[in-house]
Every structure is written in C-alpha cells, then in structure tokens.
Amino acid sequence: MYVAVKGGERAIENAHRLLAHERRGDPAVPDLSLAQISGQLSLAVDRVMTEGSLYDRELAALAIKQARGDMIEAIFLLRAFRATLPRFGATEPLDTANMQVRRRISSTFKDVPGGQILGPTFDYTHRLLDPSLTEGAAIPEPAQGAVDDTSMPRVTDILGADGLIEPSPAAGVGQPVGDLTREPLSFPADRDLRLQNLARGDEGFLLALGYSTQRGFGRTHPFAGEIRFGEVEVEFVAEDAGFAVPLGSITLTECQMVNQFKGSAAQAPCFTRGYGLAFGQSERKTMSMALVDRSLRARELGEEVRSPAQDEEFVMSHSDNVQATGFVEHLKLPHYVDFQSELGLLRKLCKEFEVAKESDVSLAEAAE
Q1: N or C: which end of the chain has fewer CB within 10 A?
Q2: Has residue 227 been placed in a domain?
Q3: DSSP for residue 138
C-alpha cells in the first residue's frame, strides 16, 4: 500500500471508519444476518465459494456482507482467508454419477433415462419484477420430492456405451494433480490445471468467451448433454484407517457439453467433450466453463488455434478476477513520480517541436 502523502495513515483510518458506516447503512433497518445472506442470496454465495476456492457458506456470506455485495472483493477476502488454512491432503475423486439430484436437464435427449427434473430455476419465469417479494410477502411451500434418488446415468455415459463420444480420460493411480493455489501457473498447462483455472475464473469473463465460441470464434457447435445439480458425498482416505471415510456432502453443479465430432483414418468419428464443475447452483458458470474447456482442447484435438477462446495463455492469464482487479485498481494508487517524469518529458518534447517548427519556418522564409 502506498502512503505517499502527508497525513496518509490518518486519512486511511478515517476511510475505514467511513466504509464501516456505509456498510451498515441506515441504523433504523435491521442488520443483515449471515443466515439471511446464505439462505436468500444463495447464488451469490455459490459464486463466491466457487471463485474463492473454499466451500463454506457462512464464510462466503460473511465475505459478501463485509464487501458490501461486491462479489470480486468478497472472492478476494475468501481467498485470503483460505491461504491461512492448513492442508491435510486431497479427497477422493467425486462420483457425480451418484449425485442426489435436485435438478437435471438434457437438451440432447427428450426421454433421457431417469427423466428431466426442472428443479429450482429461472429458466421458465417471466422477467418481470414480482411485487409479492416485497417485505412481509408470504413464503411459498417447497415442492415435495426435491431430491431424486432415481438412477440417473449421465448422458455422456450413455453415448460412451455406444462408442459415440470420446472416453473420459482416466486418472492414473498415484498420478499427481496440479494445484494452482500452491504452484505458479506455467505453459503449456495440462487439462487438470486448465479446469482449475476456469473454475476459479471470473464468471463474466468465461461467459463472454463461451459466447464468442458460439458466434464462430472457436470450434465448438455445442449441445448441453447434461446439467445436473445436487449433493455429492466427499470421501477422504484416512492414513490410520487405510480406506476412504465419508466427510459429508457438498452441493455441486456439473455440466457436460457434447461438441462436434472428430475422426481420422485410424479412429471412427465421435463426439468430443467440454466439462464444467462448480460449487452450489452455478449453471451459467459451468456451461461457460464447459464451452471454454472444449475450445482450449484445440491443440490436443489437432485443430487450428485462431480465436481468443482457443488461446490457452490468453484465457488462463486473464480469467482470474482477483488478479485482474489488483492490476486495474492499482492505478488508483499514487503514481506522482512516474506521472511528473512523463509530464516533464512531454513538455520538453513539445518545446523541441516548437523550436524545430520555428526553424523550418525561418528556413522557408529565407529560401523565398
């Protein structure tokens, strides 16, 4: 932090006090509780947990409150807290095929095995302000059967059984998995690091890139094979026990995009995949992530890299909103010395320009 001006520390302390005052708002209005934020602004909490890389609804709600609703600031706060936590190890891979589904849709099969479950969604609502949501409005009763235990094979598994989609890469036993929270980003990056980067990436940035791929700036031609939202059990191998122990369940959204097929003289044509996974109900994020994931596989699939969404270094170097915010907002800090230097140089150049101009005029008059 720069404190370059006289009285800077005192001014900053006063700014903190003013921020606390503005955060609280009208004292006559009841203070916003973390339970209210977590329960009623759940999608905001889901985004902060996903891009903050920490699954904790209460801490995410606290970050949102502290940040006055600024999502990127809240993500920054959550990441900063996460960096202080001890690391005990890695959990077993999540089995999303056994998800307790609350919402599951597919745009590729009408009668998908297990059925379409609309669940909680804005997809079928009218985009009109609802006066019934004003203070004191009645709370509707939840629908029965919100979680479905019916067997729901993933659409990509159905296609895979017929050899119509490329197989999902199998993780090698003991094969290390990269960790962007502990290791600096380098290129070229394997898909595990790319997916971590996209999961932590800014939703708006990924949405724009995903949209660009649909407009021709990247070879995708996607179909939403399946989007599922629900609870998945997390397991951890305890060294003393020697086997996987369930730690509890977390809420996830998974998106599998089915993209245009490929083939060669030695391989039959088949569909390709794009993948997205995020905490909570984060459909827009996972869909965008899956679109960009598929575009970033261009070199792997032997495609020409021509668009921003296919450029690994461009996407991964600019997707992180905390890094982007820091670099952009540092322009608010004092740059007096740099600016005065450039200002002095510009004045000198302007003066030299005027002298040269007058000299040219004198030479022209002498020639006449």
Answers
A1: C
A2: yes
A3: P
User: Angle at which helices 203-214 and 283-295 pack, to 10 degrees?
Assistant: 60
Residue 316's pLDDT is what? 94
Q: How far is CA 322 from the centre of its chain?
A: 11
Structure-token match 């010395």, residue found: 337
Do 102 and 58 lie in one domain? The reply is no
Whose tokens are 């991964």? That residue is 316
Amino acid at 56: D
Question: For residue 60, which of 35, 83, 85, 84 has the smallest C-alpha distance?
Answer: 35
What pLDDT digit, counting tens, does each position of 179-210 carry?
A: 888 888 888 888 999 999 999 999 999 999 99
Alpha-carbon distance of 124 to 102, in angstroms, equals: 16
Q: 258 and 216 in one domain?
A: yes
Task: Give the number of domains in the chain.
Answer: 2
Segment holding 52, helix H or strand E: helix 42-52
Tokens of 56: 């904790």
Containing domain of residue 73, as a range? 8-82
Residue ranges of the chain whose pLDDT lies below 70:
1-7, 136-150, 170-174, 264-265, 364-368
188 plus 233 within the same structural domain:
yes
Q: Buried (b) or exposed (e) across 319-347, using 16+ Cβ within 10 A?
A: bbbbebbeeeeeeeeeeeeeeeeeeeeee
Q: How far apart are CA 368 and CA 324, in angstroms?
A: 59
Using CA atoms, how far apart are residues 313 and 49, in angstroms rounded to an integer?
Answer: 25
